[in-house]
Amino acid sequence: MTKHPIIFSGTSIPALLDGRKTQTRRIVKLPNPTRHVVVDPGGTIFGPGPYIKAYRNTDMSPPEDGNIAAMHPRVHCPYGYPGDRLWVKEAYAAHELYEALKPSEIPAEGRVWSRLWFAARDSGCEDGPDHSDAGRWRNCLFMPLWASRITLEVTDVRVERVQGISEEDAIAEGVDAVSMAAMPRQGTWTRRQDFAQIWNKLNGKKPGCSWDDNPWVWVIEFRRIEPNKEGHA
Fold first, then answer.
1. Which of 17, 118, 148, 219 might form a disulfide with 87, Cβ 3.0–4.6 angstroms?
2. β-strands 23-27, 216-225: how paired?
3. What is d(CA 88, CA 85) in angstroms, rounded to the nearest whole number?
4. Is the dihedral of CA 153, 158, 159, 164 positive or negative?
């Protein structure tokens, strides 16, 4: 069992906490230039789950020098496979006493996740939590494992195009009336169409990553594990 960090947007955190979100889709980072990709189910030799073979030549034939590994690199899921765990990174704040300290410098008594503030729950103003004794919001990119309050167990990993998402999977992504409250939509839209709007909001400006580009994605299914007092399982 391996632990992997994963970042979720603030709007996804409530859905994770109440169990509405049990899937996430993340863009597969392919080596460039890539002409073709083939999904392989994987196995005991190359790994515990699916991976992508990225072919750089147009006809997918082996290179002349026989170096197939170099021509056909295997791209594995950076978020692990069934049985692994994901610890969620999100914006947080520690007590104002530790304002000038790096996360690694915060003493043991301050390293209790239940004594932290989280943007998805405690955001009362633009610059910091709505609590007088809380410090500034800290960037989720630099959240340490001890501060994480959400741990997920990976139950399945597969590879597909983003447009391959079904209506049922869109709901499992946490798409509902709550997640769409602040986004324009038509009353006749399906949750799959709603997901497309959310996807473009998060990824639409990245080259080759919009809904219309239909990129390859890792589909990671998970279940939430109750954290221990240190904030992770």
1. 148
2. antiparallel
3. 10
4. negative
What separation in angstroms does the CA of 64 have from each of 36, 57, 70? Answer: 18, 12, 12
Q: Name the pTM for this structure.
A: 0.82
CB atoms within 10 A of CB 74: 13
Q: For a pLDDT cut of 90, what percent of the chain falls above it?
A: 45
- Cα 211 to chain centroid distance, Å, stands at 17
Nearest residue to 217 via CA among 34, 27, 50: 27
Whether residue 135 has pLDDT greater than 70: yes
Amino acid letter for position 87: W
**Distance between CA atoms of 147 and 87, rounded to whole angstroms?**
10
**Alpha-carbon distance 153 to 156, whole Å?**
9
DSSP result, the chain: --EEEEE--TTTHHHHHTT-B-EEEEE----SS--EEEEE--BTTTBSS-EEEEE-STT-PPPTT--HHHHS-EEE-TT--TT-EEEEE--EE-BGGGTTS-GGGS-GGG--GGGSEEHHHHB-SSSSBSSTTB---B-GGG--GGG---EEEEEEEEEEEGGG--HHHHHHBT-STTTTTTS---TT--HHHHHHHHHHHHHTTSTT-STTT--EEEEEEEEEE---TTS--
